[in-house]
Amino acid sequence: EAQVTQNPRYLITVTGKKLTVTCSQNMNHEYMSWYRQDPGLGLRQIYYSMNVEVTDKGDVPEGYKVSRKEKRNFPLILESPSPNQTSLYFCASSPGLQPLYGYTFGSGTRLTVV
Amino acid sequence: DAKTTQPPSMDCAEGRAANLPCNHSTISGNEYVYWYRQIHSQGPQYIIHGLKNNETNEMASLIITEDRKSSTLILPHATLRDTAVYYCIVRYNNAGNMLTFGGGTRLMVKP
Q1: Chain A environment of B102 (Cβ under 8 Å)
Q2: Which of A96, A33, A93, A92 has the alpha carbon at shortest distance from A64?
Q3: Are A42 and B45 inside 8 Å of each other by CB?
Q4: Mean pLDDT over residues B71-85, rounded?
Q5: Has residue B97 got a pLDDT over 60?
Q6: What is the pLDDT of residues A48-80, one digit of tens each?
Q7: CB B18 within 8 A of CB B78
Q8: Is the CB of residue B41 less than 8 Å from the CB of residue A108?
Q9: What number is the average pLDDT over the span B88-105?
Q10: Is A24 on the interface with B (CB under 8 A)?
Q11: Contact A100 B103 (CB under 8 A)
């Protein structure tokens, strides 16, 4: 089944403790991205990657890192999480930058930083 | 990207058609209208998109007015599983990477 898999689904951590949220897709998509969703703010893009070793900042990149060493994986790294990074995170992939309808989203990771 | 305006919430009876409106009065000639939905805390799901002509797929129909300043997403026979937030997005088809979701319409399908 074609899908984007995120892990973990739920995570509670403490301020400052480095964490990684994994994202993997099995569709050979070139494009992958990370979004966070907060009440009243909608979905906001954190980082995106157009191919292996090619990444760029989205709207809200501060406090996050990403890497794209393989086509299928695009982990999101929080080096020193803070409570304002408590959010619902989604990974998405598509065959390329266009067409827009090709986006497939993962099921989400709910992160709480205390 | 053109700004979109959607009602914050709507109700629909199960089995009836759900008609979700979207205003995009500043849309330009090359911008497409896209619809996504998000079922409670799940990842957004693509529904349909169009440029000028009305479109239909297995999930929904999209009706775009002749002046393209508004559109309507139609779920022909709404089910309880269609309860979700529906987002109307206007964007160039080759604009690049980012999806910008506004407030959307929370559709509640009731038995």
Answers
A1: 42
A2: A33
A3: no
A4: 96
A5: no
A6: 998 899 999 988 999 999 999 999 999 999 999
A7: yes
A8: yes
A9: 74
A10: no
A11: no
